[in-house]
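To whoever is covering the structure queue this week,

Two jobs came back overnight. Logging them here so there's a record in the thread.

Job A:
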Amino acid sequence: MDCLFCKIRDGQIPSKQVYEDEQVLAFHDIQPAAPVHILIIPKKHIASMKDAGEEDWALIGSVHKAAQQIARDFGIEESGYRLINNCGPDSGQVVFHIHYHLLGGTNLGPLVAQR
């Protein structure tokens, strides 16, 4: 498998990790779009949200729980943050290992789709 995030998970590619537990790994995005920009991945390889099965819902919940903890750790829980999951090529998903972008640390404004 030639998955960038699996290689990061396995330590083959270095990352600046901020969170890890048995099921979830989180690290700084190398091209941040906000002062806080963390990528949160399940350690299990799932290509995208459309590929997540019923057996993965608890794992997806663990990713969301990690996002809450990371937001607390970075001091953005109260001011607010954005949690984004892109699913498929039209959404802008580039790495096909399900992941969430946690963005914060500034006023992100309304999310407006490009037309």
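Job B:
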Amino acid sequence: MTDKINESVDYLRSKGFGEPEVGIILGTGLGKLIEDVEVEAEASYHHIPHFPTATVEFHKGKLIYGTLQGKKVVVMQGRFHLYEGYSLLDVTFPVRVMKVLGMNRLLVSNASGAINLNFKPAELMLIDDHINLLGGSPLAFHGVEKLGERFVDMSEPYDKSMNGIFETSAKELGITLHKGVYASVLGPQLETRAEYRYLKLIGADAVGMSTVPEVIVANHLEIPVSAISVITDQGDPENLKKVDIQDILNNAGKAEPSMVKLFKALLQKI
């Protein structure tokens, strides 16, 4: 894997990528942050050696390097999911590449459904902890110890300092920012009524199909990470309605300006 990572990094450097301070992974329907980046270089995923290719139509599939709020950033415009047929190693490969490029902090966004019914569509949730229901680990492979500690401590997977800045910034900006536990499931099918009841029972506040693998690998690489979920719908098992993917994207779009403001505020303060 080390050789593959280095080949990807060499390609990106040949295309003008420098050393980013912060990596940013943009989730479903959350690509407008790019508009605020002073872009210096970009590369399509299908051109980067060993990168997977985003197959979901609303994921752009580009890695972008530039400046945002005075910080050098590398941004994943579109991410990878297990439900696209990729492995956990594929999904997390870009995080390892960004680390070798120079990234020393990681910010993640995603779209998720509310299990906690106090959270309304188009609101935001700061992830305080997570539950891995993907059925595997991105660290469960031969040779992982060459890239970092095999038995990674996950008592505090999300950085307290950055989370604190997010909370303070939300108050200053008048943005509703809930805090809770994110459950990651395989998908791509949405949850049944019984599954929503189960998720509530085990302590989840929101559910989605991403983020946890990248966060595990960030911890493996000893990179501070913070993540925000955009609440796109509610999973009320007693009043479950059919979900329209377009409605999910619309709610993501409504919440996106607030998420962009919080990411920019954080970058100013770190």
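Note for Job B: The chain has one domain: 2-269.

Please reply-all if you pick these up so we don't duplicate work.
Q.
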